[in-house]
Specification:
The chain has a 4-stranded antiparallel β-sheet, with no helix packed on it. By secondary structure, it is mainly beta.
Length: 161
Protein backbone atom coordinates (compact mmCIF):
# COMPACT_ATOMS: atom_id res chain seq x y z
CA UNK A 1 0.00 0.00 0.00
CA UNK A 2 2.84 2.37 0.78
CA UNK A 3 4.28 1.95 -2.73
CA UNK A 4 0.99 3.07 -4.32
CA UNK A 5 1.03 6.20 -2.11
CA UNK A 6 4.53 7.03 -3.32
CA UNK A 7 3.44 6.56 -6.95
CA UNK A 8 0.38 8.75 -6.39
CA UNK A 9 2.56 11.44 -4.80
CA UNK A 10 5.01 11.34 -7.74
CA UNK A 11 2.16 11.55 -10.25
CA UNK A 12 0.60 14.53 -8.46
CA UNK A 13 3.99 16.25 -8.20
CA UNK A 14 4.53 15.85 -11.94
CA UNK A 15 1.10 17.29 -12.70
CA UNK A 16 1.74 20.31 -10.48
CA UNK A 17 5.18 20.84 -12.00
CA UNK A 18 3.90 20.63 -15.58
CA UNK A 19 0.85 22.85 -15.00
CA UNK A 20 2.79 25.62 -13.24
CA UNK A 21 4.27 27.42 -16.20
CA UNK A 22 4.31 30.97 -14.87
CA UNK A 23 6.12 32.39 -17.93
CA UNK A 24 3.46 31.27 -20.40
CA UNK A 25 1.26 34.00 -21.87
CA UNK A 26 0.07 32.17 -25.00
CA UNK A 27 0.82 28.56 -25.97
CA UNK A 28 -1.24 26.73 -28.59
CA UNK A 29 -0.62 23.85 -30.98
CA UNK A 30 -2.41 22.90 -34.20
CA UNK A 31 -2.20 19.41 -35.68
CA UNK A 32 -0.77 18.77 -39.13
CA UNK A 33 -2.83 16.13 -40.93
CA UNK A 34 -0.53 13.34 -42.28
CA UNK A 35 1.78 15.57 -44.35
CA UNK A 36 2.35 19.33 -44.24
CA UNK A 37 1.61 20.68 -47.72
CA UNK A 38 3.86 23.55 -48.85
CA UNK A 39 0.81 25.81 -49.40
CA UNK A 40 -0.74 25.01 -46.02
CA UNK A 41 -0.47 27.97 -43.65
CA UNK A 42 -0.96 27.43 -39.94
CA UNK A 43 -2.36 30.56 -38.28
CA UNK A 44 -2.54 31.76 -34.71
CA UNK A 45 -4.39 34.81 -33.35
CA UNK A 46 -2.67 36.35 -30.36
CA UNK A 47 -4.08 39.13 -28.21
CA UNK A 48 -1.20 40.18 -25.91
CA UNK A 49 -2.11 41.10 -22.33
CA UNK A 50 -0.38 44.50 -22.38
CA UNK A 51 1.56 46.93 -24.53
CA UNK A 52 4.40 47.73 -22.13
CA UNK A 53 6.19 44.47 -21.27
CA UNK A 54 8.61 42.60 -23.53
CA UNK A 55 7.98 38.97 -24.47
CA UNK A 56 9.90 36.14 -26.09
CA UNK A 57 8.25 34.37 -29.04
CA UNK A 58 8.74 30.74 -30.07
CA UNK A 59 7.64 28.38 -32.79
CA UNK A 60 6.95 24.97 -31.27
CA UNK A 61 7.07 21.81 -33.36
CA UNK A 62 6.49 18.13 -32.76
CA UNK A 63 8.14 15.70 -35.15
CA UNK A 64 8.40 11.94 -35.52
CA UNK A 65 11.11 9.70 -36.93
CA UNK A 66 9.41 10.13 -40.33
CA UNK A 67 11.04 13.58 -40.55
CA UNK A 68 13.99 12.93 -42.88
CA UNK A 69 15.93 16.20 -42.77
CA UNK A 70 18.46 17.60 -40.29
CA UNK A 71 17.13 21.15 -40.65
CA UNK A 72 13.85 22.96 -41.23
CA UNK A 73 13.08 26.15 -43.13
CA UNK A 74 9.99 28.09 -42.09
CA UNK A 75 8.34 31.27 -43.29
CA UNK A 76 6.86 33.08 -40.29
CA UNK A 77 4.72 36.13 -40.88
CA UNK A 78 3.35 38.37 -38.14
CA UNK A 79 0.52 40.78 -38.96
CA UNK A 80 -0.06 43.66 -36.57
CA UNK A 81 -3.53 44.99 -35.64
CA UNK A 82 -3.12 48.14 -37.76
CA UNK A 83 -1.95 46.37 -40.94
CA UNK A 84 1.86 46.22 -40.69
CA UNK A 85 3.36 42.82 -41.55
CA UNK A 86 6.78 41.31 -40.82
CA UNK A 87 7.86 38.20 -42.73
CA UNK A 88 10.92 36.12 -41.85
CA UNK A 89 12.47 33.05 -43.45
CA UNK A 90 14.03 31.03 -40.66
CA UNK A 91 16.23 27.95 -40.52
CA UNK A 92 16.33 25.61 -37.54
CA UNK A 93 18.54 22.63 -36.84
CA UNK A 94 16.43 19.55 -36.13
CA UNK A 95 19.14 16.90 -35.71
CA UNK A 96 22.76 16.67 -34.65
CA UNK A 97 25.47 15.54 -37.13
CA UNK A 98 24.85 11.88 -36.23
CA UNK A 99 21.16 12.22 -37.17
CA UNK A 100 19.79 12.18 -33.62
CA UNK A 101 16.83 14.55 -33.25
CA UNK A 102 17.43 17.55 -30.96
CA UNK A 103 13.93 17.85 -29.51
CA UNK A 104 12.82 16.56 -26.14
CA UNK A 105 10.62 13.55 -25.46
CA UNK A 106 10.84 9.90 -24.45
CA UNK A 107 8.94 8.43 -27.41
CA UNK A 108 9.52 8.77 -31.14
CA UNK A 109 7.72 12.15 -30.98
CA UNK A 110 10.16 14.98 -30.26
CA UNK A 111 9.13 18.45 -29.12
CA UNK A 112 11.12 21.47 -30.30
CA UNK A 113 10.96 24.97 -28.83
CA UNK A 114 12.48 27.20 -31.51
CA UNK A 115 13.36 30.86 -31.01
CA UNK A 116 11.42 33.26 -33.21
CA UNK A 117 11.93 36.72 -31.65
CA UNK A 118 13.05 37.99 -28.27
CA UNK A 119 12.15 41.05 -26.22
CA UNK A 120 9.12 41.91 -28.37
CA UNK A 121 6.84 44.69 -27.12
CA UNK A 122 3.33 44.52 -28.57
CA UNK A 123 2.78 48.27 -28.83
CA UNK A 124 -0.48 48.10 -30.80
CA UNK A 125 -3.60 46.94 -28.98
CA UNK A 126 -5.64 44.21 -30.66
CA UNK A 127 -5.15 40.87 -32.36
CA UNK A 128 -1.84 39.89 -33.93
CA UNK A 129 -1.88 37.08 -36.48
CA UNK A 130 1.06 34.71 -36.85
CA UNK A 131 1.19 32.56 -40.01
CA UNK A 132 3.64 29.67 -40.30
CA UNK A 133 4.42 27.56 -43.35
CA UNK A 134 7.33 25.34 -44.27
CA UNK A 135 9.78 26.29 -47.01
CA UNK A 136 11.75 23.06 -47.36
CA UNK A 137 13.79 22.27 -50.47
CA UNK A 138 16.01 19.34 -51.26
CA UNK A 139 19.63 20.01 -52.29
CA UNK A 140 19.99 20.54 -56.01
CA UNK A 141 16.25 20.84 -56.65
CA UNK A 142 14.50 24.06 -57.63
CA UNK A 143 10.98 23.15 -56.53
CA UNK A 144 10.21 22.91 -52.85
CA UNK A 145 9.13 19.82 -50.95
CA UNK A 146 5.40 19.57 -51.74
CA UNK A 147 4.39 17.43 -48.78
CA UNK A 148 6.63 17.43 -45.72
CA UNK A 149 6.43 14.24 -43.68
CA UNK A 150 7.12 13.84 -39.98
CA UNK A 151 5.81 17.13 -38.54
CA UNK A 152 2.74 16.30 -36.45
CA UNK A 153 2.00 19.60 -34.70
CA UNK A 154 2.94 23.26 -35.08
CA UNK A 155 2.58 25.67 -32.19
CA UNK A 156 3.22 29.24 -31.23
CA UNK A 157 4.25 30.43 -27.78
CA UNK A 158 4.53 33.84 -26.14
CA UNK A 159 6.24 33.97 -22.76
CA UNK A 160 7.59 36.41 -20.24
CA UNK A 161 11.41 36.57 -20.31
Amino acid sequence: MQQSNVLLFLLMSCLVFVSCDSNRVFDTYKSVPNKWHKDSIISFKVNPPDSTNAYNLFVNLRNTNDYKYNNLFLIVEMSFPHGKTIKDTLEYRMADPSGKFLGTGFTDVKENKLWYKEQVVFEEKGDYTVNIQHAMRENGKVNGVIELEGITDVGFRVEKP
